[in-house]
Automatic annotation (TrEMBL):
This is LacI family DNA-binding transcriptional regulator. InterPro entries: Cro/C1-type_HTH, HTH_LacI, LacI/GalR-like_sensor, Lambda_DNA-bd_dom_sf, Peripla_BP_I. Residues 8-55 form the HTH cro/C1-type domain. CDD domains: HTH_LacI. PROSITE patterns: HTH_CROC1 (PS50943), HTH_LACI_1 (PS00356), HTH_LACI_2 (PS50932). Residues 11-65 form the HTH lacI-type domain. Signal peptide: none annotated. The keyword Transcription applies. Gene3D superfamilies: 3.40.50.2300, lambda repressor-like DNA-binding domains. It comes from Nonomuraea montanisoli. One of its GO terms (molecular function) is transcription cis-regulatory region binding.
Length: 346
């Protein structure tokens, strides 16, 4: 493969446009708003930019556009000794999608004694960032209300209220659970249970509602068992009650992969073979799920698609002044593994 041509002094955007056979505006879009171009056009223009060694003057671009080309991401609080692998993957996807669009990501958190709203206001007042990307969005999330009142661009991983900008992207957790219950029913299971966290998180409630809808659709006997918090001892206790009761379910669908780990522990203690005596499925597709024995059937979140859609929507607001009229719902991706057992297992 030929080495990249070193940057030639005086290479201009017009030079790139001429070699690529496109307009100057198309080159500008490739640099500043790649989401506006067809993939094949973006690929051709990007290849010429790389070949000619063209690098735009970032300070001049910022002055002309009035943007800093920086997106702020209020990072969720995490435990360094037990990090959230799912949100780590989401952050990686966000950084990649932002970089492709020519933006950088600034991780932020409130200082001690500072509210979330005060931290947002500090960045807005300093003109440090062009917009915010929010995750872990809760019902009546105060960050959404605050940024809506401020009229400042944001996109959210999670649904906003009807009176707020619809610049959100979410996973259809309910439909994913309906589909998962269908997979369980296809294997002959009639008594099924849903193990949930009683945290009140909107995505957990959606997964529970999807489970119940799937149970009704397939005429199954279903029960919901909620665990207070995410304490491992409580998860084990709840699972033991499920598996030692009179009407023991033959399949358990957990609202999160970490809940399924407790099911594995108790099932083995009770002499039950997962995939044979008990089907188990969950949600999130954490890295550990593929290493369990047997590997866990779960729902994968399309993190790269989510990140790309969020960045695209945010840049529509920042660069075009256009706020999406409706949120975007993406499907979950079922990952079927041996924990579910073979078709027609019962």
């Amino acid at each position: 493969m030929a080495a990249r041509r070193p940057r030639a002094r005086g290479v201009t955007v017009e030079d790139v446009a001429r070699v690529a056979g496109v307009s100057r505006q198309t080159v500008s879009n490739a640099l500043n708003a790649p989401h506006r171009l067809k993939p094949e056009t973006l690929e051709r223009v990007s290849a010429v930019i790389e070949e000619l060694g063209y690098r735009p003057d970032q300070s001049a671009r910022s002055l002309r556009s009035g943007t800093r080309r920086i997106i702020a991401y209020p990072a969720p609080v995490d435990d360094p000794a037990n990090p959230n692998a799912l949100m780590g993957g989401f952050l990686e996807a966000v950084v990649a999608a932002s970089g492709e669009a020519g933006y950088r990501v600034l991780l932020v958190r409130p200082r001690p004694g500072q509210s979330q709203e005060q931290a947002l206001d500090e960045l807005i007042a300093a003109r440090t960032v062009d917009g915010f990307l929010l995750s872990d969005v809760l019902r009546d999330d105060p960050r959404l209300a605050h940024l809506t009142r401020a009229g400042f661009p944001f996109a959210a991983f999670g649904r906003t209220g009807p009176d707020q900008p619809q610049s959100w992207v979410d996973v259809d957790s309910a439909q994913a659970m309906i589909d998962m219950v269908g997979l369980v029913a296809a294997r002959g299971h009639r008594r099924v249970a849903f193990l949930a966290s009683s945290s009140g998180l909107p995505w957990m409630d959606d997964r529970r509602d999807g489970f119940l809808a799937g149970v009704r659709r397939h005429g199954l006997a279903g029960q919901v068992y909620s665990v207070p918090g995410d304490d491992p001892g409580e998860i084990v206790r709840a699972t033991r009650e499920l598996l030692t009761g009179r009407d023991r379910p033959t399949a358990i669908v957990a609202g999160g992969d970490w809940l399924a780990l407790g099911v594995y522990t108790v099932a083995r203690a009770e002499g039950l073979e997962i995939g044979t005596d008990l089907a188990v499925a969950a949600f999130d597709d954490l890295p550990v799920t593929a290493w369990l024995q047997p590997a866990l059937t779960t729902v994968r979140l399309p993190l790269h698609r989510i990140a790309k859609a969020l960045i695209s929507r945010l840049l529509q607001i920042i660069e075009d002044g256009v706020t999406p009229r409706a949120g975007l719902v993406l499907p979950g991706e079922p990952v079927v593994r041996p924990s579910l057992g073979p078709p027609n297992a019962l």
